[in-house]
Specification:
Elements (H helix, E strand, L loop, with lengths): L1 E8 L5 H14 L4 E7 L7 H8 L4 E6 L6 H14 L5 E6 L5 H8 L4 H4 E11 L8 H11 L4 E5 L6 H17 L21 H8 L17 E7 L5 H13 L1 H4 L1 E10 L5 E6 L4 E5 L6 E7 L3 H8 L5
Parallel strand pairs: 1-4, 1-5, 2-3, 2-4, 5-6
Antiparallel strand pairs: 7-11, 8-9, 8-11, 9-10
Helix pairs in contact: 1-8, 6-7
Length: 314
């Protein structure tokens, strides 16, 4: 049986960045590794970035979750069965930020996956600053993704003060308590150092972190997150960055936008990889790109967003 790891975390927490560092260490240790990215939408904009970062020796697969609520689970199951027929020694799964980890655990107990895989490590990424989302559905997802994690890793901790980092952990505990989970995350449990300074030992300890087992209530929240995808809009990075603050601050017009991500060209033709939330905007040059913008949030107004970004895929 081969080990399978899960890297989870809420929208924009930094899962893909940790995935790259973690998989590079697996490769350096001579472990043949496949990666499955399970995204919430019609297009996965991280695939080009991952292929550039990890190279051709990694098995890289994507599973898109557009469709009925069980669509992503069926597609992920089929992909994992296909990978089990190959010679990979370890598989790392990065689901979307609105994916429930419990679905993944249930999947591994289904026939025939229970004969192919054993759970390796469950890693949850939390932001060093408390999440801006206050909706019960967002807090539930945060708690659900952390409750069973063998390792909790804080992103961008070098940019936050000690007070902010402690507040971020307190926000996680508040969410866990809200849904009657007995886990209390201690500040000392969290790996909170600059990811540029993660050592081989740090990454190997993540590999051995395993899983915890905690119960929590699942309220009847419904799946109220929506995803709109915009392809080949011709929109320039400068305009999108300038428009983002209004999009995030005007829920009465655009809906409650949680995240905007994708790759678009600058005015000089250079590709930019964008990851935008209400609290942070990051933009990074990339050699390759795809003219694609993905908007994720609750109760989104398609007409208003289309008027700003172009025509979304139906």
């Amino acid at each position: 049986m081969r080990k399978i790891d899960l890297i989870t975390g809420f929208l924009g927490a930094g899962k893909t960045t940790l995935l790259i560092k973690y998989v590079r260490q697996l490769l350096a240790d001579g472990i043949k590794t496949a990666v499955v990215v399970n995204d919430h939408g019609a297009v996965n904009v991280d695939m080009v970035l991952l292929r550039q970062a990890l190279g051709s020796s990694v098995g890289l697969e994507m599973v898109l979750g557009d469709g009925d609520p069980g669509c992503h689970k069926r597609r992920l199951r089929a992909k994992l069965i296909a990978l089990a027929m190959e010679s990979w020694e370890r598989v790392v799964v990065e689901p979307s930020g609105v994916f429930e980890a419990e679905e993944f655990f249930d999947l591994l107990h289904e026939e025939p996956l229970d004969r192919f895989y054993e759970l390796g490590s469950v890693m949850a990424v939390i932001d060093s600053r408390p999440m801006a989302e206050s909706a019960a559905s967002a807090r539930y997802l945060l708690a659900e993704q952390v409750k069973d994690a063998g390792a909790v890793v804080m992103s961008k901790s070098q940019l936050a003060s000690l007070k902010e980092r402690r507040q971020a952990v307190a926000a996680v505990n508040s969410a866990l308590s809200q849904f009657r989970c007995g886990r209390v995350l201690r500040y000392g449990e969290v790996l909170h150092k600059s990811w540029d300074k993660l050592t081989r030992g740090d990454l190997r300890r993540l590999r051995e972190a395993g899983r915890q087992f905690w119960d929590m209530e699942r309220p009847a929240l419904g799946d109220d997150y929506m995803t709109f995808t915009y392809l080949n809009t011709g929109l320039r990075a400068e305009k999108l960055l300038a428009s983002a603050p209004e999009i995030f601050s005007r829920p009465e017009i655009y809906g409650s936008v949680t995240r905007i991500k994708g790759s678009v060209r600058r005015g000089d033709g250079q590709w930019q990889q964008l990851n935008l939330t209400a609290g942070e905007q990051t933009s990074e040059e990339t050699a390759l790109g795809q003219d694609c913008i993905i908007v994720i949030g609750r109760q989104l107004d398609r007409q208003a967003l289309d008027g700003l970004l172009g025509r979304s895929l139906k």
